[in-house]
Amino acid sequence: MTLSIRRVVTDHDAQGQSVVSYDEITSNIVSRRPGHSSSVIWSHAQTPVDNQEAGDAGLRNVADCAADGAIFRVVEYGPGVSPRMHRTQTVDYAVVMAGEIYMVLDGGREVHLKAGDVLVQRGTVHDWINRGTVPCVIAFVLIAAKPPVINGKELGPIG
Questions:
Q1: CA 156 – CA 143 distance, rounded (Å)
Q2: Tens-digit pLDDT string for the chain (159 aa)
Q3: How many other β-carbons are positioned within 10 Å of the β-carbon of residue 144?
Q4: What pTM value is reported for the model?
Q5: Fewest Cβ atoms nearer than 10 Å: which of 30, 52, 65, 100?
Q6: Distance (Å, rounded) from C-alpha 139 to C-alpha 126?
């Protein structure tokens, strides 16, 4: 995979002036299955965020969102990415940055997304299928959410 994301993070110096604390190509690339790679840009474990917290919050090893947190992640799905139906306990804001992809929902329903499309995923079961010939890159912001309750049954995470 060729995921290459420039990450710029700002902060304050000792006098309270705005400064750039990180300006780099991310190196924390992980793969959760064949045809997939991702990089956490930033994350936090609780809201409101403490903007004085020290350290690089992009280096946290996070697969899922903390109970009151959020994750900003960029993902690349290669052509033929291995399937993985899953549901997280988050509301996910997504922007397709490059390529195209199919989001598969329960029962095989599909939505075709392409560069420039945006998506709000509200705790639903889904998978990502790249049937194209080029990688699809999507930026995600995952924010902790209460699980959906349907007919009195809480729908927890799967996958």
A1: 15
A2: 578 999 999 999 999 999 999 999 999 999 989 999 999 999 999 988 888 888 899 998 787 777 889 999 999 999 999 999 999 889 999 999 999 999 999 999 999 999 999 999 999 999 999 999 999 999 999 999 998 898 999 888 887
A3: 19
A4: 0.92
A5: 52
A6: 16
Task: Provide the residue ranges of all domains of the chain, joining segments of one domain with +.
Answer: 31-154
Q: Tokens for 34?
A: 């064949």
Q: What are phi and psi of 101, to 5 degrees?
A: -160, 160
106 three-class SS:
helix
In 70-117 the beta strands, taken as DSSP E runs, fall at 70-77, 90-98, 100-105, 110-114
Count other Cβ atoms within 10 Å, centred on residue 104: 17
